[in-house]
Each structure stands twice: as structure tokens, then as C-alpha cells.
Amino acid sequence: MNPVIRIVVVMGALAGACLVARAAWPALQSNLTALRSWRRTVGEVRAMSDKIEFEIGREPDSSRAFAVVDHTWGLQLFHKAPLFLDPADPARVKPAGFLQMWLTPAGMSAFFVLFLAIAWVGANYGTGQDDILVAGAPTQARWIFSQSPGPLPSAVTLHAPPRQWKIILGWSLLGVAMAVFSIFAKGGNPLSRVGYITLGTAYALALWAFAWHTSSLEVSANDRGIRMTSVLGWREVPWNRIRSVEDQDIFTTYYNGKMKMWELPFPGNTIRVLAFTDERGFPLMTLSPELQPADSLHRLFALCTEQTGLKLHHRTIAIKY
User: Fold this and answer.
1) How far is residue 67's CA from residue 51's CA, in Å, rounded to a whole number?
2) H or E element: which one contains 46?
3) Between β-strands 218-221 and 244-253, what pairing exists: parallel, antiparallel or unpaired?
4) Which DSSP string do the residues of 220-280 spell out, in sequence order?
């Protein structure tokens, strides 16, 4: 894995873990304080708005107390609920139900563990992944998360068009917006806010990494095979592994019970890829038909035909659901 990406993943995950711990600590501290020094009682839920209003005791000796909660799970209007009563302020209570006390800390703990797991994976993923070579060529057509050896010598080379990584960056703004709006939102369940921040940040970071991969993508081919390299690693496929070369149109479809037929492809649900497959039809490497320059793409398939005797043929693949 590229060292910069590894550092960003690890530091970002550790920062996320610290932020989650910081957000979870007040709720956990409040629970521990209530368990140690507050008095247990029972109250009836009388109103559920910004604050939950409880009636404690029976008339005419009843009193009203209020609690600020993150969620209303475990509370029902006009139903009794266990409470902790603040001895210093009888009008201040804390719901003592399991969901009210521990749902938010448990959710925060799950996010904390998730961030630590991401940091561990980021620190270790790809380490010790030796490039197993036989006569200078890899034995497996798998993606290797290590620094690429560069393009093949004396090779036909292709690159992704610049507009592709720019489009990816544009889509990443959705994740940025989700994270920023959740950070600056007033109120709301802290567990939900952390979830939205995590989801938006992960979405944006994933697309930024993919945009970097696309902008640095280079495909090269010579008489040895075909190699794909980028900032995220590399993959090489020897010509003798390839059994078919396909121009694939892939679309999703479903069975229309009213029309008694499978739905046909239409613009928007079809993607086109150029695939080099093995004897099982499994794609060893897939390329975008928009790789540039176009004449080099034609030279690549001519070289493939020269080395393997295979010609590019069309194939339509329907993914049923």
C-alpha cells in the first residue's frame, strides 16, 4: 500500500476513535455518577417534547421533574419508568432504563472499536505481501498492494482520461456535505450524528482514494503480458493465462410478472468493460474502453492477438435480481 494512503487511513481512523471517545465520555460519566450517588425512584412519563417530563409520587404530594435524553427508546407516554433522582436538584432526573442509559455508550463503543479495527487494518494491510515471481512474471493475476514496479519496458501504454477522476471528486462532495452538516448540526442524537459523520467521511475518503487511483492509472503491455499500475499498487497478467478477450455489456434486469418477460437493458443500467478472462470466464483484468490514447488501445488488442491468437469479441451479461 502507498505509504501516504497508509498514513492517512491510520491517522484518520485514530482521530475518529478519539472523537468518538470524546463524544461518548459525557454520557458514560453521567451514568457512573447516577449509579454512585443518585437516588432510585419511579416516575410516570407526562410529556415528551424537548425535555421529558416525569411525575414522581402520587397527588397531592406528587412533583414534576425533567430529563434531557438522546432518544425516547424505552419510554412511553403515561407509562412508568425507573429514574435516578439528583439529590442536589429534585427537579432533575435521569431515566434508569437499560436502553436509556446504555444504548448511546454501547453504540459509541461500537464505533470506537470499528475505528481501531480500521487503523489496525490500514497499518497491516499489504505488509509482507511478497511479489511472487517466476521468470520475472507474477504467478497470480492478483492486485498487489505495494509500490508498483512501473510500466513494462518497451510497452504500449494507456492512461485514464482526466475527466474520470474529476467526476469522482465531484461525487465525493456528497460525503463531505453529509459529514459537515452533521458536525455543525444543533442538537440531535449524538449516536446518529457520529454515524452520519463516519459514513460521510468514509464515503468521501474512499472516493478520494479512487480518484487518486484513477488519475495515476497506467496500463502497459509488451510481449510478456499486460500490467496495470497506480498509486494503490499493481497487477500483471501474463499472456499465457488469458483464454478469452471480451467487450462486455453488463446490465441488471428483473422479471416483469405483468409482461411475462425479463426487462431489457436501457441507458443508465448498462456498463461496458474490456475484460481479459481465464478458462473459467473469471476476469483477470478489466479495462475501461475510454483509456487513452485510442490508437494505443487498438495496438494493445493487436498485440494480444499476436501473442495469444485471441480476438476481441462482444458479450452481453445480464445480472438478474
Assistant:
1) 6
2) strand 39-48
3) unpaired
4) EE-SSEEEEEETTEEEEEEGGG--EEEEEEEEEE-EETTTTEEPPP-TTSEEEEEEEE-TT
Superfamily of domain 3-29+37-101: Nucleic acid-binding proteins (2.40.50.140)
pLDDT at res. 24: 86
Residue 51: φ, ψ to 5°: -120, 150
Percentage of the chain modeled with pLDDT above 70: 92
- Predicted confidence (pLDDT) at residue 243 exceeds the cutoff of 60: yes
Q: Is 17 helix (H, G, I), strand (E, B) or coil?
A: helix
**pLDDT-derived band of residue 132, with 50, 70 and 90 as boundaries?**
very low
Q: Would you call 156 helix, strand, or coil by DSSP?
A: strand
> What's the mean pLDDT when you consider all of the chain?
86
The three three-digit cell numbers of residue 311, written as one number: 480476438
Residue 243, Cβ density class (10 Å: 0-12 exposed, 13-18 middle, ≥19 buried): middle
Check: CB of residue 52 under 8 Å from CB of residue 66: yes
- Asked if 185 and 200 touch (Cβ cutoff 8 Å), the reply is no
* Confidence band, pLDDT 50/70/90 cuts, at residue 133: very low
CATH 2.40.50.140 in the chain: give the residue spans.
3-29+37-101
DSSP assignment of 59-74 equals TTS-EEEEE--S--TT
- Interval 82-120: pLDDT, tens: 999 988 888 889 998 898 889 888 988 998 999 999 888
Quote the pTM value.
0.73
Candidates 137, 303, 139; CA nearest to 221 is 303
CA distance 225 to 219: 11
Q: Identify the DSSP state of 152.
A: P
